[in-house]
Amino acid sequence: MVSADAARNIVGIVGNVISFGLFLSPVPTFWRIIKAKDVEEFKPDPYLATLLNCMLWVFYGLPIVHPNSILVVTINGIGLVIESAYLIIFFIYATRNTRLKMLGVLTVEALFMVAVVAGVLLGAHTHEKRSMIVGILCVIFGSVMYASPLTIMGKVIKTRSVEYMPFVLSLVNFLNGCCWTAYALIKFDLYITIPNGLGAVFGLAQLILYGCYYRSTPKKGKNVELPTVKVTKNSVGGGRVSVTVEK
């Protein structure tokens, strides 16, 4: 019979694989941005939220805060690098106003993390207290990360188009939430359960919206109706032909 620790490790490894897929799922979006040299209607909100979320979870999983959480550290460390790359690309092709907003948010996030690390290490001297403080922050900002696509979901409902809500991202987001919720429930960890449970719910909501509005999304490469050309022969002018374009 598989022990709880072994089962949790197996689910955690699967969670790492799915989370890696989640971090990579926006690649088609950013490839589109690079080719167009324009961020179009895409928003940086999810990537800014995910960046802060990864920083908090890396800190939470360190042995000085919450021992035996190496699988939490590995995947969020990878996510931190990937999200940074996305934000760099977004920054390059965004408008000046968007860049300024991004810089403002990134500055606030950096100052916030410095304050959290210093406050926890200097003010809390046991693993339990450190885990509780950082865990609560992870719950709050993890929930913000999973809720950040709400802005895109609102756009989907308003425009009746899923063009800017990629299906792969929604699906992997749902699977990721389910897997990490299972990981947290094997050896109960409230701080991992809450945000990932919400992630599963929001991911499911995105999939439902996708199913509702996929058919009403304008398809690219649709045939364009061309104007017709009417040719008439002038019987008086010696066989001359006149061409009329009708729209």
How would you characterize the overall build of this protein?
The N and C termini lie far apart (75 Å). The longest helix is centred in the middle third of the chain and has 28 residues. It is built from nine helices and two strands, in the order H-H-H-H-H-H-H-H-H-E-E. It is globular. With 247 residues, the chain is mainly alpha-helical. Strand 1 and strand 2 form a beta hairpin. The chain has a two-stranded antiparallel ribbon.
Give the gist of this structure:
This protein is mostly helical. Helices cover about 70% and strands about 5% of the residues.
Question: Topology, pairings included?
Answer:
Elements: H1 4-24, H2 27-36, H3 45-61, H4 70-93, H5 96-123, H6 127-147, H7 150-159, H8 167-186, H9 190-213, E1 228-233, E2 241-246
Antiparallel strand pairs: 1-2
Helix pairs in contact: 1-4, 1-8, 2-4, 3-4, 3-5, 3-6, 6-9, 7-9, 8-9
Give the % helix: over 70%
**First-last Cα distance:** 75 Å
Structural class per helix/strand content?
Answer: mainly alpha
Number of helices: 9
In terms of DSSP E residues, the strand content is under 5%
CA gyration radius, whole angstroms: 25 Å
- Order of SSEs, N→C? HHHHHHHHHEE
Q: What is the 3D form?
A: globular
Rounded mean pLDDT is 83
The major β-sheet equals: 2 strands, antiparallel
Strand line-up of the largest beta sheet: 1-2
Number of strands: 2
Model regions low in confidence, pLDDT < 50 over at least 5 residues: 222-226
